TrEMBL record:
GO molecular function: prephenate dehydrogenase (NAD+) activity
Pathway: Amino-acid biosynthesis; L-tyrosine biosynthesis; (4-hydroxyphenyl)pyruvate from prephenate (NAD(+) route): step 1/1
Domain called ACT: residue spans: 294-361
Transmembrane segments: none
One family name in Pfam for this protein: PDH_C
Protein family according to the UniProt entry: Belongs to the prephenate/arogenate dehydrogenase family.
Enzyme Commission number(s) of this protein: 1.3.1.12
Name by which UniProt lists this protein: Prephenate dehydrogenase
């Protein structure tokens, strides 16, 4: 691949353009908002000038509702040898293209499983896709050259290719992406009218659950409008669990010992099923999640503190597997939770104490 046209310079389009440009591909940028294309170009994602001729690959990075018409226009204009989109749903754009009578041999649907709560070109990074799954949904009509160019794009973005059927993909993302967004927003919505005293008690748990609730509502309306059935199916199952959990909690209030016991068993059941599901979520490098030991360190809110603690851990020869930061409400301090291999926890604790860090049990 020597040339690429990125249509849509939001988070995903600009991130892909940055990755391609960084690997020596000549990238051309187009957006219905010319200012966004200029911003992406200024970030080093390519040029907002028109290509002189046909490019190797056109990457359509527009909202799901506009994917089919944007692709059809580009394909009829013959702007590229191959075309793909990066929308978060795959079945409906393909069916819309079929309805438009477009030749699908030059097209493949794709979906990089990466994103942020923030949108737009200024949120883009060249490493957004590194190590993340990038779904490809070829059909029997997809030309081999098109599939190869899509695989090259994935490789240049340092992502991991995953081949799936389009409708199977849509059911999967309904479970692992779209439903979590809605549930996160529903929990965060409880905070809107909550008492200030309650909100001041927010800790890491509520921060984890509501992190993605900061996402752009307009963008998510477009995504969910393209995949409503599978998401509704998953939510129906969640709603059934919620009903059972509410009944179990009400039973715990009963004066009847037998009902309280039933309620406790109902709560334990949903928590245990949650444990079983969480175990299936891939951990580091796509393997089964590891039970890490947490070394909690109190740090001040000063520039360079995190860099210093990572450097001290490195000097101790300990690899930090994951990290969380819990800010202390109303104070210029926080608690850093360093997740390490259990065997390394005593060594790290001793080394950090020796270097003056305050360790919390």
């Amino acid at each position: 691949m020597r040339t690429a046209l990125v249509i849509g310079t939001g988070l995903i389009g600009t991130s892909a353009a940055l990755a391609l440009a960084g690997r020596g591909v000549d990238v051309y940028l187009v957006d219905h908002d010319a200012e966004r294309a200029r911003t992406a170009a200024a970030l080093g994602a390519g040029t907002d000038e028109e290509p002189e001729g046909r490019v190797d690959l056109a990457v359509v990075a527009v909202p799901p509702a506009h994917v089919a018409t944007t692709l059809a226009d580009a394909m009829r204009a013959g702007v590229a040898r191959a075309y793909l989109d990066v929308a978060s749903v795959k079945g409906s754009p393909r069916r819309d293209l079929e309805a438009l009578g477009v030749d699908l041999t030059a097209y493949i649907g794709t979906h990089p499983m990466a994103g942020k709560e923030r949108s737009g070109p200024l949120a883009a990074t060249a490493d957004l896709f590194e190590g993340r799954p990038w779904v490809l949904t070829p059909t029997r009509d997809t030309d081999t050259e098109v599939l190869n160019l899509a695989l090259e794009l994935v490789a240049l973005c340092k992502a991991v290719p995953v081949v799936m059927d389009a409708d199977a993909h849509d059911k999967a993302v309904a479970l692992v992406s779209h439903t979590p967004q809605l549930i996160s927003s529903m929990v965060a919505a409880r905070l809107e009218d909550a008492d200030d005293t309650a909100v001041r008690l927010c800790g890491q748990g509520i921060r984890d659950v509501t992190r993605i609730a900061a996402s752009d509502p307009r963008m998510w309306v477009e995504i969910l409008s393209a995949n409503p059935g599978p998401v509704a199916d998953v939510l129906a199952g969640v709603a059934a669990d919620l009903d059972e959990t509410v009944r179990a909690l009400r039973a715990l209030q009963s004066s009847d010992e037998s009902k309280r016991q039933d309620g406790a068993e109902g709560i334990e059941d949903v928590l245990r099923r949650g444990n079983a599901g969480r175990v299936r979520v891939p951990g580091k490098h796509g393997t089964a999640p590891t039970a890490y030991e947490i070394v909690a360190v109190l740090i001040s809110d000063q520039p360079g503190e995190l860099a210093r603690i990572f450097a001290d851990a490195g000097q101790a020869g300990v690899n930090i597997e994951d990290v969380r930061i819990e800010h202390a409400t109303g104070q210029q301090a926080g608690l850093v939770q360093l997740m390490v291999d259990p065997a390394a926890a005593p060594l790290l604790t001793a080394a950090l104490r020796e270097r003056g860090w305050s360790i919390r049990q």
